[in-house]
Amino acid sequence: MMIGPPIQQLTRRLAGCPSAFLGDPLIAERGEVRVDAVVADILHDLGMPLGRAEVYREFSAEVAVDRNWLRVVLVAAWLIHDPWFVQNHAAFGADLARRAMRWLKEDIRLFANLVAAEACVADADRREELARRCLEALEIRPAGESAAQAADRLATLDVVEQHRVMLETRERNRRALRLRQKMREERARAAAARWARE
Amino acid sequence: MSEEGEYTEEMPRKWRELNPLITQKGWRHLERIRSHPDAPRWNETVGDRVRAEDLKALKAFRERIHKKSANSGWKHGARRHENPFAPPPGVIEWVKNMRPRSPIFQEFIPLGSDLARDWAYLPTMSRRDLATRLADMTPVDADLERIIAYDTTGTTGHAVDVPHHPQTLALNHAIGEFALAEYGVDATFSAGEVACFNICAQVNTYVFPAVFSVWNQAGFAKINLHPKDWLEPGEDWASGEGLKAAMERARRYFRAFLPRFISADPVAIAEMIRWGVGHGARAIFSTAVELSPGLKSRAEAYFNCPVIDWYSSTETGPIAFSAPDGRGMQIAAPDIWVEALDEDGFPVAPGEIGELVVTGGRNPYLPLLRYRTGDFGRVIDGRIHDLHGRKMVFFRAPGGSLVNPVDIGRIMRLHCAFALHQFVQYPDGRCEVRVRPVPGVPVDISGLKEKVLSLFSKDARVEVLVDERLGEGQPGGKVEPYVQLGEV
Predict the structure, then answer these.
(1) Phi and psi, residue A60, nearest 5°
(2) Residue A84 needs a FRET pair 20 to 30 A away by CA distance; which of A59, B48, B334, B382 works?
(3) What confidence score (pLDDT) does residue B474 get?
(4) What average pLDDT does range A72-91 have in this prediction?
């Protein structure tokens, strides 16, 4: 695994994210920022040829629920335009841009379901998590850390994994089972008098 | 002596348990309603389950409704934020407070979100969430001890179970009071009178008497306008003579108790006119499905009282009622926020038609965040206009009795698994049931036909067809589940 920049370099970059990268993405003729074009430009600076139809297809949206994802993509795009990646992309061949695209398209989507774009800039833990997710997806280790140290630190911050655990814990399953049982009990099914059926 | 009410030895334990606050007076009144010689054949024992703490909550809720009507609280229409689609601060606060308690709220609201600014982009909840992940919708710290369950019956689709709480139903009474008061009907009730009858017109439904603690032990009954619920066992309810006898008995019963107001769906309102029952009510609440202007006018003329159309659902509770000035439906509940969204999930431009979604509510087991109702309308200054909701459809058996889609949906769900169904009655009275089966699951055609005949009578003409392509080519792959091609 290639050694990359120190994590603090990336978290400082996120903290200084310009407001233009927190703009409203264009969705169904609402908003301003063409996220697909921004991503295409940034991936080009990482070695991807311009004009790839796939980029424009994957980073445009028509529905409101995609807004936070696209906003986080913008912040993440700002992040991967750090001079370290731009100056070193050739060492990766075509891999860096390809990995970056996959990260923006897939991993970021899970993250953006749980974290607002503003938190990626304003919240120290979320800045660090986003920076570490970025490096992991690009298969780069932060300078000054071992692979195990980097993995442990990300696990501590990982909201996606914490949410997955919350949904799949025994406690959640117990709660779901108890709710079903309570609703099935004769007393629950007997309901209560109400003045109208709705 | 119970902790919360008074009782005597003559009150059976079961009634006391179901009615914690019932008094001696209330019990005697309930007995009169229950044992009247013309009473229908009751088939269930139900109480209001209200406790003392519920009455405290009701008092506070009544005050809140009063304040809302005086232009404060969760007021629709006024701008409070530079984002015109942002709800009032009270809604934002409620959502923020709910987030730590609700897994689905956490999933829908990313960490660090500016709710007021980003409100329009929040995901919506739907019936599918209710069906597949109820445990994520119910707050993790909810006390399940008093939970009750309603089947939404699914007049237009598949039914789901909805958890409810007796206090929620108690608070709904306050909304009903408000509507009555807006129409000039006294909404103060007392023991010894009957506040309300809830009328149904189905082949099968629960029928029971009750008293409401929230209304000072005033009486209530759920009544069904189907002859089999009024005749003795063995009497032929399918015949014209049976229907006539049932109607006469029902009329005597209604005259004996003269409920202050009646609640019924439009199918039942139409049957009330046919049966000649309900005279003397000072208002009729029409619920469940869309009330046509024609039926409203006819019923108002026949009963000489306002027919108040309600917009509500089991999931949301009462939302709005037809305004006395005739301009749309007034959003009555002070603890919900109603928006109209387009097909992409964005709020529509002010005054445009969109799908109505609801946030808030008073059901501790089902806090709602932009819950899609499946109904459409315009939301303008605290009113809903041009509501397109569930349509009224019903069917006739050969003997003239009514068959409600609720009855058909229930037997179909109990009898077989299917992907889609469509029930059609033709002008000549014959019925056709089309079923799209679940792959690999055979349909018991003769068994299903027998079940349908049990609703209509053995003389009815019913055909059951398996149609593997039902719904193909239709928007969303869906069909209208109930179609009436004749006149009823």
Answers:
(1) -120, 155
(2) A59
(3) 67
(4) 96
Q: Judge whether B333 and B69 are in contact, CB under 8 Å.
A: no
The 10 Å Cβ neighbour count of residue B457 is 17
pLDDT for B157: 54
> What is the average pLDDT across B140-169?
81
Q: Which of B73-82, B113-122, B323-332 has the highest mean pLDDT?
A: B323-332
Which chain A residues are within 8 Å of B288, Cβ to Cβ?
A: 196-198
Backbone φ, ψ for residue B340 (5° rounding): -120, 125
Contact between A198 and B18 using a beta-carbon 8 Å cutoff: no
CA–CA separation, A113 and B215 (whole Å)? 46
- Cα gap B335→B485, rounded to integer Å: 41
Helix (H, G, I), strand (E, B) or coil at B245: helix
What are A36-77's pLDDT values in tens digits? 999 999 999 999 988 788 888 889 888 888 899 999 999 999
pLDDT given for residue B78 in this prediction: 47
What sign results for the dihedral spanned by CA atoms B88, B90, B96, B100?
Answer: negative
- Where are any strands of DSSP class E within A58-110? none
Residue A131: name the closest of A79, A62, A87, A89 by CA. Answer: A79
Quote the minimal CA–CA distance from A27 to chain B in Å.
10
Task: Collapse the DSSP code of B314 into the 3-class scheme (helix H, G, I; strand E, B; otherwise coil) and give the result.
Answer: coil
This complex has an ipTM of 0.81
Higher local confidence (pLDDT), B191 or B476:
B191
Separation between Cα atoms, residue B425 and residue B170, nearest integer Å: 39
Alpha-carbon Rg for chain A, nearest whole angstrom, is: 21
pLDDT band at B179 (very low <50, low <70, confident <90, very high): very high
CB pair distance less than 8 Å for B147 and A183: yes
Q: How high is the pLDDT of residue B249?
A: 97
From A30, A115, A163, residue closest to B112, measured CB to CB: A115
Comparing CA positions, the residue from A114, A135, A98, A196 lying closest to residue A2 is A135
Q: Do residues B285 and B297 make contact, with C-beta atoms less than 8 angstroms apart?
A: no
* DSSP code string of B468-484: TTTTTTSGGG---SEEE
Residue B153: pLDDT band with limits 50, 70, 90: low
Dihedral (C-alpha) B366, B333, B77, A68: value to the nearest 10 degrees?
A: 0
Give the integer Cα–Cα distance in Å for B173 and B215: 9
- H helices of B48-155, in order, are 52-69, 89-98, 103-108, 115-118, 127-132, 134-137
**Positive or negative: CA dihedral B102, B107, B108, B114:** positive
CA B221 vs CA A191, A194, B167, B173, B186: distances in Å: 15, 10, 19, 15, 19
Residues B421-457 have pLDDT tens digits of 899 999 999 999 998 877 777 888 899 999 999 999 8
Beta carbons within 10 angstroms of residue B427's beta carbon? 9
Chain A residues lying within 8 Å of B125, measured CB to CB: none
- Joined together, the tokens standing for residue B257 give 């108790």
Tell me whether residue B3 is exposed, middle or buried, using C-beta atoms within 10 angstroms of its C-beta: 0 to 12, 13 to 18, 19 or more.
exposed
Element (H, E) at B368: strand B368-380
Say whether pLDDT at B328 is over 60. Answer: yes
Chain B residues in contact with A190 by the CB 8 A cut-off are 18, 44-46, 148
pTM of this prediction? 0.81
Q: Is B52 helix (H, G, I), strand (E, B) or coil?
A: helix
Dist. CA B336–CA B351, nearest whole Å: 19
